[in-house]
Specification:
The chain is an all-alpha fold. The chain has a domain of about 60 residues: Helix Hairpins, CATH 1.10.287. The protein is about 55% helix and about 0% strand. Helix 2 packs antiparallel against helix 3. Belongs to the UQCRH/QCR6 family. Keywords: Electron transport, Membrane, Mitochondrion, Mitochondrion inner membrane, Respiratory chain, Transport. It is found in: Mitochondrion inner membrane. Component of the ubiquinol-cytochrome c oxidoreductase, a multisubunit transmembrane complex that is part of the mitochondrial electron transport chain which drives oxidative phosphorylation. It is a peripheral membrane protein.
């Protein structure tokens, strides 16, 4: 009697790709929901970007506007993010 007959090996079957659920990052979902809340900061950032791009030589950067926009988004997202994590 062969040795492999003494051990039972569980059968593993792969699920079809269409049966698998697509994982969604809750942070991305919350960021989409926070876009209207931070619209004024995004508008200021876009205005700054247009102003900087329109000039050939400028020392201006939009760092402040980026920080303000990201701060707004982070503040909005963090309220609900940790309740959605497992």
């Amino acid at each position: 009697m062969p040795l492999w007959n003494w051990f039972s090996v569980p059968a593993v079957s792969a699920q079809a790709e269409d049966e698998e659920e697509e994982l969604v990052d809750p942070q991305d979902v919350l960021r989409e929901q926070c876009q209207p809340h931070c619209a004024s900061w995004k508008e200021k950032l876009e205005t700054c970007n247009e102003r900087v791009r329109s000039r050939s030589q400028t020392a201006e950067t939009c760092v402040e506007e980026v920080i303000d926009f990201l701060h707004c988004m982070d503040h909005c997202v963090v309220k609900d993010l940790f309740s959605k994590l497992k």
